[in-house]
Amino acid sequence: MKRNQLHILIFPLLFSTILHAQILNTEVKAKIELSYFEEMVSVTGTAENLDDGIKNLSYTLSVIKKNKQTTNTSNNSQNGEFTLNPNEKKILSTTKINQSTKDEIIILLLIYDDNDVMVGKDRIIVEEKKSDVLNKNETELEITGIVSDDTKTKVGKDFYDIYFSKYNSEAIKGNQIVQIEEQLNIGRTTILKITIDNKLISEFIANPNEEFLSQKAEEAIQITKKYFKDLEKLKNRIEQY
Question: Which position among 50, 95, 98, 230 has the lowest Cβ density within 10 Å, counted as fewest Cβ atoms?
Answer without folding.
Answer: 98
